[in-house]
Amino acid sequence: MATHLTGQRMFLAGKWVSGERTIDVYDPQDNSVVDTVPAATADDMLRCIEAAKTGAETAAAMPVHERMSILTKAAAYIEEHADRYAQTISREGSKTIREARKEVMRCVQTIRISAEETRRIHGETIPFDQTPGGENRVGYYYRFPIGIIGAITPFNDPLNLVAHKVGPAIASGNAIIVKPATVTPLSALLLAEAFVQAGLPPKVLSVVTGHGSEIGDVLVTHPAIRMISFTGGVEVGEELTKKAGLKKISMELGSNSPLIVLADADLDDAVASAVSGAFGAAGQNCLSVQRIYVEEPVSYAFKTKFVEQTVQLQVGDKQSELTDMGPLITEKEAKRVERLVDDALEQGATLLTGGTRNGAFYSPTVLADVPEECAIAVNEIFGPVVLLYTVPDLNEAIEQSNKVDYGLQAGIFTKSIDKAHKAIAKMQVGGIMINDSGDYRIDAMPFGGVKKSGLGREGVAFAIEEMTEPKVVCFKLATD
């Protein structure tokens, strides 16, 4: 594909700004340069934060109907230019063009939900006379914006995961500074473009491109930043919590998602959902199905069908409508996955299919007999690899599912309402999907996990809760 470099500018406090240094954005499929973006400096970030102080005042003063109007117009702009947004997602990232189109439409929905939730930021009256001496007091609480939010976003959903931070921030009357993933900054800049076209006041939103090592600490540690919203890996998340200081933190840090298939399950449905959940976006999804526990009576049948469908996946050109799976985000990441698989095989795992790498491409891979102490079994793979296990019953499946340090979402296939409820009660996760794989999500639901999978919840209404604080108002009335 011919490459046309336009040289993008970052969006700093309402202005499109160039930089002395630039970062090349590569297409992982062929390592061609898609475009360039500025490499912001620490001083750039400091100027942005200073401007955002004014932006926060502007945002907080915006009436609800104006916030709703801006969000609605931004969503309409993205929908109108959906093909351009999808092409950008697919070129700079790992997604096939079909996957990219789905992400664009999810982004549109995320922003429209944000517009709707703007009108639902409510408070409540408080009966102060519940306490002796409070008979002459009446009052309420309402929610107010916290100020400036720092958002650090990942590469795997470069548009919609940014929208999940920007949409609720604007809906709740905050200013927000986005530091997008260095390898996929173009989609975030396109999101900023939509808000410019929608009439968002200057200084409310910034998208600052650059290396985390140069600008990340400035954003995270600055006292004017009242909340950090981060989506990424556990190691980085732990470092951010140490550096952030006294500010709110919301983090989605990944998973090692289990799927349980019981003997009474609809196997065809379970297999199709598991294959999609394991290999969508080349497995680079925090909800990606990683471990599958199959009850013994149907284990062989499930394994046979699962491998058959995995082999049929078309891996190749992201722009082809026939392609099911593209490359990983970089060749370095593909090599990391390759090492994990090779380590498991050396420790006794059985390769059922896949296990080969070509540049940034890694074939859809299915492993069995994986020792539970293997790195690939206990950590997040973030690649197109799934582990199959046979278990005697539901109790063992739940016990094995809970053994890892993650707990984002899980899935279970069963026709038994009793067994489904047992899994619901016992599985240590933030969400459980019944007769679906754990990678199912809608943008309106609370999204987050337990243990090392993160802190707090996203999902528009729930992010708004995180981005606001309650203020109590009490009137002491004069007595007759």
TrEMBL record:
Enzyme class: oxidoreductase
CDD domains in UniProt: ALDH_y4uC
Keyword Transmembrane: no
Domain Aldehyde dehydrogenase: 16-473
Pfam families: Aldedh
Reaction it catalyzes: (2S)-3-sulfolactaldehyde + NAD(+) + H2O = (2S)-3-sulfolactate + NADH + 2 H(+)
Function: Part of the sulfo-TAL (or sulfo-SFT) pathway, a D-sulfoquinovose degradation pathway that produces sulfolactate (SL). Catalyzes the oxidation of 3-sulfolactaldehyde (SLA) to sulfolactate (SL).
Protein name in UniProt: 3-sulfolactaldehyde dehydrogenase
The organism of origin for this protein: Planococcus lenghuensis
Lineage: Bacteria, Bacillati, Bacillota, Bacilli, Bacillales
